[in-house]
């Protein structure tokens, strides 16, 4: 069956020499919904960025411009080579013998560039690709609280159209988000503070951060691109000799296998669109590091070698190694994004464990900032 899609049609008709070079055994193509490409120049560069080959790493694909994506059963995640970490929903996957592709994957939005957004009335709450996971809880809350619904969406629209994130003053954005949520809750007509056993405020904050993620993230990356470039050079430098770095910080017996595993976990924050999910990942990582040190210490005891302390210094050093090995992108922006959230929690929400997890992560980044390389 013939597939009608502008990218595919232009590739076959205008760039046939490129198309003829492709193999139905190795190449895949990603096709965003046609309506999202209305103002897009579908040129040779765009098409090359849409065609991918499987890499040697699991679920990782590289396009003809050396950009990387990760594909699972439901989503496509942009990775190396992209200005922002974007999550695209997979609409369907086709295997069509009539085309020079192993797979043709249809996605809801482009991998990069401006996103298409439909005009949405304030009578209906909006769910973008980032915030859709909170759809059920939010719909349940707003089904009984129309005034809250109209207020929140009006505030989100105003936020995107009028707010600028000033470097160094990101906490004001976090404070604004909390104020919007607090006012949304005050306007509810049904004063039940829980949805299906979950706290309404937490759900609304997660939804708001997720809904505004693209807007916030784009500005954070722009604000910190110069610092980020310097940090990435240091990450690249460290990655060349992780074992040497571990030896320098008196952790030479930590196995590289563990660093590689940790780097995979750290890299998951690149897929997160709300700070709470990032905190959860970092919490898991801190627990894993403690387990790794404990396991290593058991081996050291058998060899009658001095064991390692489980303290903030060892956690920071191992996270630095994992960040460097995984070459985590936009690491400064991730830290600022977390700080916006944590700084605006009230005292009862800002538990010691949460603050400790963030402090360890932030200190790891500061270590990279302060590190001197030759």
From TrEMBL:
Transmembrane segments: none
InterPro entries assigned: VPS9, VPS9_dom_sf
Residue ranges of every copy of the VPS9 domain listed in the record: 225-374
Pfam families: VPS9 (PF02204)
Name the record gives this protein: VPS9 domain-containing protein
Origin superkingdom: Eukaryota
Source organism: Plasmodium yoelii yoelii
